[in-house]
């Protein structure tokens, strides 16, 4: 049985103007010790899918479907039951550590209260374990740093603190929302290596939310590509990079610099993501897709198997997709 199994996850937000369907029928599984990358442009539904599972949607958001964790459906779980799981067995690293950390509390207080709540340990023992975890995420002089406030730390250190907080209770699943976006490339590489090391040490399963396929290539076993609230393609990472089959996936890869190609022009995807308050009929990507036909503008394609373990949502047969193989 998978550690986490998501079926027909849907997220809708009620606004004054219209209902916004942010996520529409997402399905995936996560095994123990596995890393899944959820990829797509801003507004594709990546973060809202995870926030729905953790009970962290905005007050006007509603989730439906199933997200089964250890036999328990996370969708619709009471606040009391969710607080027992969230931060303990399921943890999240948010995108911006400066806005996620409390500027009025020291790092020590923000870390120790997690352990006091979920592990029922003394303040002294909690501090000792917090320092140990800061050392595990390679923060120098951890015993000194733990007494500082977030603004006294660099961006890279704040992100390491967020990772340490998320791992304090040794969760089974770690959700990481764009954990390297605000960092320079050197620190990005350090954070990704840190996640790899911590996964090896703790056996944690990771769901990585990102728009950066380069990050996915370095960390993930499986990939789920989202666009317009739907899953466009889903397979193992090696397959995605070797033979992408959905026009949107191909477009993302063509915009990514690659060391295994000598030169080659980077090409962006024309147009803009859809307005989810007024989504287009048919495939959400058809207005930007060079391979679209009349059927694409009418019917949203179902997610179907190309091969075992490899799914795509596209009306066009794989062999008819324009791949521009000089770069992809």
UniProtKB/TrEMBL annotation:
SUPFAM superfamilies the record matches: P-loop containing nucleoside triphosphate hydrolases
Stated name of the protein: Oligopeptide/dipeptide ABC transporter ATPase
Keyword check for Cell inner membrane: yes
Cell membrane is among the record's keywords: yes
Molecular function GO terms recorded: ATP binding; ATP hydrolysis activity
Membrane-topology descriptor: Peripheral membrane protein
InterPro entries the UniProt entry points to: AAA+_ATPase (IPR003593), ABC_Ni/Peptide_Import (IPR050388), ABC_transporter-like_ATP-bd (IPR003439), ABC_transporter-like_CS (IPR017871), Oligopep_ABC_C (IPR013563), P-loop_NTPase (IPR027417)
Any one biological process term the GO annotation gives: peptide transport
Keywords of this entry: ATP-binding, Cell inner membrane, Cell membrane, Membrane, Nucleotide-binding, Transport
PANTHER family hit by this protein: D,D-DIPEPTIDE TRANSPORT ATP-BINDING PROTEIN DDPD-RELATED, OLIGOPEPTIDE TRANSPORT ATP-BINDING PROTEIN APPD
NCBIfam families, sorted: oligo_HPY
Taxon lineage: Bacteria, Pseudomonadati, Pseudomonadota, Betaproteobacteria, Burkholderiales
């Amino acid at each position: 049985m998978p550690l986490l199994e998501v079926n027909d996850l849907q997220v809708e937000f009620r606004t004054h103007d219209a209902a916004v369907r942010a996520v529409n029928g997402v399905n995936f599984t996560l095994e123990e010790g596995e890393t899944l990358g959820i990829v797509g442009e801003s507004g594709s539904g990546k973060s809202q899918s995870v926030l729905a599972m953790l009970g962290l949607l905005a007050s006007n958001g509603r989730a439906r479907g199933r997200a089964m964790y250890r036999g328990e459906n996370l969708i619709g779980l009471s606040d009391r039951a969710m607080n027992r799981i969230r931060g303990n067995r399921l943890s999240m690293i948010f995108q911006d550590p400066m806005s996620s950390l409390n500027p009025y509390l020291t790092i020590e207080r923000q870390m120790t209260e997690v352990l006091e709540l979920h592990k029922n340990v003394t303040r002294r023992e909690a501090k000792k374990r917090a320092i140990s975890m800061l050392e595990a995420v390679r923060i120098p002089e951890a015993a000194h740093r733990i007494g500082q406030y977030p603004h006294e730390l660099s961006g890279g250190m704040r992100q390491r603190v967020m990772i340490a907080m998320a791992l304090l209770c040794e969760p089974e699943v770690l959700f990481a929302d764009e954990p390297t976006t605000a960092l320079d490339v050197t620190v990005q590489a350090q954070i990704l290596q840190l996640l790899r090391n911590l996964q090896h040490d703790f056996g944690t399963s990771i769901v990585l939310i990102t728009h950066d396929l380069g990050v996915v290539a370095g960390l993930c076993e499986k990939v789920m590509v989202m666009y317009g609230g739907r899953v466009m393609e889903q397979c193992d990472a090696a397959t995605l990079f070797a033979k992408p089959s959905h026009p949107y996936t191909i477009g993302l890869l063509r915009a990514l610099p690659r060391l295994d190609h000598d030169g080659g022009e980077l090409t962006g995807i024309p147009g803009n993501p859809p307005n989810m308050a007024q989504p287009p009929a048919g495939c959400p990507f058809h207005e930007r897709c060079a391979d679209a036909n009349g059927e694409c503008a009418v019917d949203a394609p179902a997610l179907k198997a190309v091969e075992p373990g490899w799914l795509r949502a596209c009306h066009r047969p794989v062999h008819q997709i324009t791949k521009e193989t000089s770069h992809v």
